[in-house]
Structure formats: structure tokens, C-alpha cells
Amino acid sequence: MDFSFRIANKSFDFLIFVILSTLLTTIHASIHIYQNQLFNEVGNAYLLPGGSEGLYASLSSDDSATDGRSFIRFENITFWRTQDAADEQSEMEHSTGLIQAVIFEAADRDNIGGSAYGGQRSICCTPDLAKLEGCKQGEVIRIPSATEINWPMVLNIQFNGNDLSTQMNNAEVPIKKTGMHNLFFIACDPKLKGTVMSGKTVWKNPDGYLPGRMAPLMTFYVYMAIAYLLLSAIWFSQYMRFWEDILQLQHCIAAVIGLGLFEMILWYLDYSNFNKTGMRPVVTTAWVVTVGAIKKTLSRLLLLSVSMGYGVVRPTLGGLTSKVLLIGATYFVASELLDITEHVGTINDVSGRARLFLGLPDAFLDAFLILWIFTSLSKTLEQLQVSCNSLLSDLMIGDVTFLLCDNHAYFIQAKRISVKLDIYRKFSNALAVAVIASVAWITYEIYFKATDPFNERWQSAWIITAFWDILSFALLCVICYLWAPSQSSQRYAYSEDVGEEFDDEEAQSLTRGQSNGDVSLVKQEQKNGNAGISDEEDESEEDKRE
């Protein structure tokens, strides 16, 4: 199928833009980088989010151990206040401004802040709260955890005299409890409005730098790569064995299998490098995302082409080719943008609003493709059913001379159409199951995210991503089974007897320049004078296999 390989050319300029724009850039993944980031006013505090990741408890209590430890480390953290704020202070004063680094688990979120007389919740201690709760005015309200008195963790950083900047001492906070950990830098002093921060924090799990939500996916991609490898071995052994009988549709299936294997290997390499170094080069992740977007696009176009009967009830897509190419190119761009937003430069275990916004076009295009696929599949099934009924009717009303002389060819053709009809019915059932499973999983995904706003179920969140890869692979296996390369592949390809019911536009594009009777791939097997004998032998072999 030529159009499946032309999608990349259609979006070649877009790929070049993505590659060139990211070639010299590196994103530090579990190494969170802050570059002159501004504190934002939230309630009665000035706040800067430092990161949010699922971290497992350290396996080793030895701080000198290199493996098995889980921690958050602060490196070269520097704060700059405004010149006006610095000028207001005396050079001789020791403490002229306080910034606090607060680390807490999502489960302990209510231990930060408080409320006086049931009013609005405050992050910083106010005079009323100081009287009621005994907190220290001008500092973050911290209520000790029921299980760990030193948690949430609060680290203090002071400005001295009228200094314009202050640097935090490099510190390492060990993680002793598994959970979704959050880091915030908070200033309660109104004079610190406009403060900016630079530096980095290093977040590490016992097994590496991968965030907890992503860690299981590295192992998952190993298993998926093995599954694709097995499917590739089975498919390509048959593919090479029956090379001369391969259909254009089967070339496309081979391309999707190859891209799927390549994608799984790239994802594993990306995650493995991320886990070892804590760094995620943008160019590597961008390539993985691009290969995945191409694979998803070709997979959907493959489903659409199969549903339209490409190679089975029609030799080409005719006038629909440009429309299929257009929807394919559009879907590729939407999928590429969504995956780049989700994966390239991703640090935290919390998805942002950008993913939701970019996910809408992707979801709309998926819904449109599903509708188009089922509409086309319905027409293909109807066309095959009409052709089958027509041939059976001819057999039943034939005269004596016809029954004695020519009914064998009709029986052969009727059987072939019947096999095509059976294949498409099985494909239709598999597709219906996949769509039902997709809708059910989307419902579950919405419920999962709606009931977990603070990502406390991060340890099982990887399943949301993994499901779609499993479903895509399962549907690909069904297609491989139904259209597996075999000696009889060409006999079940497009035949003039089932391809007569195209619309006028498609019929003109398909028959232009062809003579009558020259289109049927089935009839090409009957060029010699011994067609009857050959067909009998072929059908005998098919009956044995079936």
C-alpha cells in the first residue's frame, strides 16, 4: 500500500523542525533544574513548586551506601530578592528574610497550613493562628505527622543583612517512607515579593532516577519488545516463505510490526538511560515519540484500509486516497504534539493542563476514525454478502448445460467470497471487542484520575499507559492471524466479481486504462488451458489446510 509510506513524506517538514529545535538541548529529568524562577503569590504566602514524584523508601539505612538509597538532594540553590527589599534592611542585621523548603507526602498535605476560626486556610502563620495553634508568626504552619514527628520536613534559608542573594547549604533528605513526595519553596515575608531562585534538586529512588510512576514501564517495555520480537519472527518467516504471493496489505502489516518492535526498543533505551543518569536528552525522547506517532498513525490507517476492503474487494482506495492521507497526516501531527508535551522534558509525576488541552484533538480524531472504520466495514461486509448471495443464486437457477459444464468455477468463486466474508466477520467482531474495551478503559481512566487528584495511587498509574500498548498489540495479532501470508493469499485478493459496487468517482479511477476482464487477480491463475485441473488441485490443498 503506497499511501502508508507517504505519510512520513507529508509530515517531513514538521519532523525536521522538531529534530533541529531539540538537537542541542538536554532535559534533566529527575534532576530538577530551576533557572531564575519567580515565586508566585498564593494566599498569604509566596510559593515556588520544586517538584512532585513518587518515591520509594530507602532499602538501606546506611547513608554512605551508593545503591538502595532514596533521597532528595539540594544542589547550588540560590535565591535573589529585589534591590528594594535588600535596601530596606540594615547591613548589621543577621536575619532579614526567611525562605523555607518544605517536603511532604501527598497523604500529609493537610499538615501544611491552618485555618483560624474555620475561615480561609493559610499557609503562613498569622497572629490569630499563633495564638490558637502555637505556630511561629511569619513561618510556614507545620503539623507533625502522626507516624513521623520530623515529617513534613522544613529547611530554613536566611537572607543576611542587606545582601541581595543567599545560598542554601547543599543538603540531602533521605526518604524513609514510600509515597508521593512534594517539594515547595515558600516565603511568608511580604517584603520577599519578586524573589527568584536558581539551582537544582536531585530525586532518586532505590533502583535509579526514574520517577516511581514511570519505573514499572521500563520492565513493561522489555516484555512488549519480546512480544513484538516473537510476532516478527512468526510473521516474517511466513512473509519470506510466500514472498511471491504477498499482498500490498501484508506489506503494510509488516511495516507496522517492524515499527512496533523499534518503538518498544527505543522506549526501553530511553527509560534505561534516564534511570542510570537522571538525565533525559530531548533529541532521544523526541525520536522515540516520533517513531511512536508514526506507528500509531499507520496502525489506524491500516485498520481503516482493511475496513474499506483494500486489496480484498478493491485494488486501490481510488478517490478516497487523498482523504485517508489527510486524516493520517492530521492525526500524526496531533499525536506528535500530545506525546511531546507528555514525554519530552517531563519531570514530575503530575500531568499538566497542556496535556488535557492537546489531548482533545487526539481524542476527537480517534472518535472520527472509529466512526469511519465501522462505516466502511459495514459497507464491505454488505458488498461481500451481496456478491456471495448473487453467486449462490446463479448456481441454484442454472440450466442443465451450465450445471454440467461451468458450475465448478462458480463454486470456487463462491467459496473464495465466503472465506473473505468469514474473515471480515471475525475482524469486525475483534474490532467491536477492542472498541468496547477502549470505552470501558477510558471510563476507568477518567474515574481513576477524578478520584485521585493528588496522585496517591501513583504506583499503579503505569497500567493506564500500558493498557493501550497491550490493546494495540492484541489487535495487530488478530490482523496478522486473519491475513497471514500463505500460498493462497492471492486467491483471496481483489477479484472483479466482488469489486463492482464502487461509487462512480472510484469506478472511473479504478477502470481507467484497463480492458474488460483484465482486473481480476483470481483470473490470472487460469491463463493456461488446464485451469480446471489446476483449480481442483488448489482447492484440494486448501481443504486440507482448512
TrEMBL record:
One cellular component term from this protein's GO annotations in UniProt: Golgi apparatus
Keywords for this protein: Membrane, Signal, Transmembrane, Transmembrane helix
Subcellular localization(s) per the UniProt record: Membrane
Domain GOST seven transmembrane: 216-490
Keyword Transcription: no
Membrane association type: Multi-pass membrane protein
Transmembrane stretches, start-end: 220-237, 249-269, 354-374, 430-448, 460-484
Alphabetical list of InterPro entries matching this protein: GOST_TM, GPR107/GPR108-like
Full protein name: GOST seven transmembrane domain-containing protein
